Inverse folding.
């Protein structure tokens, strides 16, 4: 390798190295003197002031859409667990909790759908699956003495509509209840 090639390689390495910013070092970035940095001889934990500054920096960058999206995903995951859909959660089935999760996601999703972009379809699919799981779970817990549904039980929605008419929230809630679409009601 010639001297010119070595100089070009070193210049490229320097250009690729992270550049210092005006914001200064952050806690945990490994800068000398940084609490908890590998080279920190004291190995001291961050002070309350340093923690508060890091927390304020995170809050400054955080957007409400991100928090709502995280909440929606958490509700879907918890709803799946309460529906007994996850391995080992079969004994946790609770139709009331699943209904609350579904209803919450249905009401939050339109608020953040534009921000989700192409991920909105995955969230809608997960919501549809959770609604179907709720319908099955509610059907298992329904009284068998004929109080609910009568001849309608097991036939699906009136008019022959499939799940796409209800789970996405496009169909007005039948029966006035909680607004949760449930097949056969």
């Amino acid at each position: 390798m010639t001297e010119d090639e070595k100089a070009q390689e070193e210049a490229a390495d320097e250009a690729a190295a992270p550049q210092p910013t005006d914001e200064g070092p952050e806690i945990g970035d490994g800068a000398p003197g940084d609490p908890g940095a590998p080279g920190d001889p004291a190995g001291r934990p961050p002070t309350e002031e340093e923690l508060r500054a890091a927390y304020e920096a995170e809050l400054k960058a955080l957007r409400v859409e991100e928090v709502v999206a995280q909440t929606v995903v958490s509700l879907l995951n918890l709803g799946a667990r309460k529906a007994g859909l996850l391995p080992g959660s079969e004994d946790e089935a609770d139709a009331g909790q699943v209904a609350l999760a579904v209803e919450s996601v249905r009401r939050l999703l339109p608020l953040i759908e534009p921000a989700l972009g192409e991920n909105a379809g995955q969230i809608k699919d997960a919501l549809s699956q959770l609604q179907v799981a709720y319908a099955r779970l509610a059907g298992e817990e329904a009284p068998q003495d004929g109080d609910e549904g009568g001849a309608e039980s097991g036939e699906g929605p009136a008019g022959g509509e499939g799940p796409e008419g209800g789970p996405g929230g496009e169909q007005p809630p039948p029966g006035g209840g909680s607004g949760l679409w449930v097949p056969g009601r």
